[in-house]
Design the sequence.
């Protein structure tokens, strides 16, 4: 059987090495790029969570991504990425 052989897919080292460094923070430009190609809001939010990205949003920083097509849901998550579970717990104390 001397015929051509099929090329086997290869995995990138970061896909197979659990010790590979985690992804870096997403930039505002990357979030705008994801929104531009219509990546779903939930996927963008998951990427923000997974990379533990944080943002300091001033009024201008809110206007810029909104004009670039980033949804209000994603912008709201960028402004307040912490879950509000503690708020209910604290209110039960009083």
Sequence:
């Amino acid at each position: 059987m001397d015929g051509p052989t099929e090329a086997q897919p290869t995995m990138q080292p970061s896909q197979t090495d659990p010790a590979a460094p985690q992804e870096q923070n997403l930039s505002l430009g990357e979030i705008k790029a994801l929104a531009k190609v219509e990546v779903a809001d939930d996927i963008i939010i998951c990427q923000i969570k997974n990379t533990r990205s944080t943002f300091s949003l001033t009024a201008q920083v809110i206007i810029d991504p909104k004009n670039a097509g980033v949804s209000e849901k994603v912008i709201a998550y960028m402004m307040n990425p912490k879950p509000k579970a503690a708020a209910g717990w604290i209110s039960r104390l009083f």
In short: The chain has a mean pLDDT of 75.
